Amino acid sequence: MKINKEIRQLAREMLRASFTDGRLDGGKIASLVQSLITKRPRHFMDVLQYFKRLLRLEIEKRHARIEGATQLARRRRSISLRG
Amino acid sequence: MSSILEEIETKIAGLKTSTSKSNVGVVRETGDGVARIEGLSDVMLNEMIEFPNGVFGLALNLEETEVGAILLGETTKVSEGDEVKTTGKLLQVPVGKALLGRVVNTIGLPLDDKGPIKTETFYPLEKKSPRALSSRRSVSQPVQTGIMAIDAMIPIGRGQRELIIGDRATGKSDDRDRHNHQSGALEQGRRRRRRQELSTALLHLRCDRSEEFQRRALTRRSRTRRRDAVHDNHFRACVGHSNESISRAVCRRGDGRVVHGQWNGRAHHL
Lengths: 83, 270
Prior knowledge:
The complex is a heterodimer. Chain A contains 4 helices and 2 strands; from the N terminus they run αββααα. By secondary structure, chain A is mostly helical. Chain A has one domain (1-83). A two-stranded antiparallel sheet of chain A has the order 1-2. In chain A, α1 (5-16) crosses α3 (44-61). The radius of gyration of chain A is 17 Å and the shape is elongated. In chain B, a hairpin with a 5-residue loop joins β11 (250-252) and β12. Chain B is elongated and about 110 Å long. The termini of chain B are far apart. The interface between A and B is medium-sized, with 15 and 12 residues.
């Protein structure tokens, strides 16, 4: 099913509300998802799916993948694991 | 952070969506205990429909664009714009042992604050008449009343029912009696004799008014008061009795209206 404009808007608003001091807040995200499931607005499943996609993109945007042909130095590896 | 995504995925997978179809309409206008509803496309005739605030209605008028329903309950609780649902049930009431000792309204809803009536048996309010009525023969034999206007324009069948409307003293009862074969020559003679007796009684009453009545009115005003008046229905019961009983049974007001009934305090004000 095609995701319409309202679904996208709601999911984006949820994403904006998920930040605390510029970083994604796990507690906020959980409460947002819970309230959406409780209220069950129209197309809430599609909103959740789209919100998940936005979160995934946001998380990917804030991560850097470092690849090397040789073994990475310990410091660099720890940075990449910490995210 | 990927744990959050996994958590959301788990929640989405755990959600179950169920769909249910319900036929819903909107009240367009309401008044005089009738609501006109738009949007109820799948409603049956005589189906119970549910309004907000626990009010029920009965769909009686199915038109192309709207449904007319009579309201069975508090009509003031229904207003324009209210959402209406069909119930899929014809007008019915709960029956069974659960109904024992309960106080219900006309459509079987409880009024005694003891909770809903738990029964699985319902009985339709509108159903076929008992066999004694349905097995009657249909009307097939004409009856000649002897009144040309009636026989020509509204012929009557034997055993049928007919509404007779008319102004007073236009002969409605005569027609009825004739149709019911109660008014043969004997009956007509009886009625004529009663009329004669009535005239005699009236004469007596008028005579009484001059002297006897005035005297009684002055002496026993609070207890007895006479009026010269008459009504043929009561006259039937009164013929053969004293003039006093006639005046008690029927009173004629000053404006010519006849009020019949037993003598009581109200008649003082006539």
